[in-house]
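Translate sequence into structure tokens.
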Amino acid sequence: MQGRRAVIVAGAGAAILGLVLVFFLVLPKMNEVAQTRDELEDTRAEQQTLSAQLNALEQARDEAPENEAAIREVDGKVPPTADLPGAILFLRNAATVSGVTVLSLTPATPAASETASFSSISVSASGEGSYFALVKYLHEIETLPRAATIQSIDLSPIEASALSFAATITLYTSDVSSGPGSEPGPTEQGAIPGA
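Result follows.
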């Protein structure tokens, strides 16, 4: 019986030793493995994020010359000052090229945009010409070297083949201080004069 008891005690001791070894050696290693897997997943997610950012930056680098050209084009079409005499000259030249008789060009006071860093100048224009001359005039305005949009136009017949028009044209400048009480000259991009 003594031998059997010794075997049972030895077996129980081995089982306890096995549990102690599992508890102190295996479970901590399993916990480390689980933490390492979590870190690996986090690292993979971070790698995917960084890879996406790298791709976006490489695309931006590749598109930079085109974007810079577009910015230069816009900068060229939106002058740094209101230059009303130059704007009126552009509009009169467009009328001359298209065969339209301009009766009046009346620029309003430049107004700073509330949502962007530019000022707009509304110009009331009136005149007369044939339908095709007016179409060419509108095209000439839309393709001026200076940014311009036609906000509205009213046409009325005056003769068999002639029309009179009244239009509102908007010109733009990057000078946000244009208008009454403004500081003359161009302003820094995004800067608000007097602030």
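Note: The radius of gyration is 38 Å.
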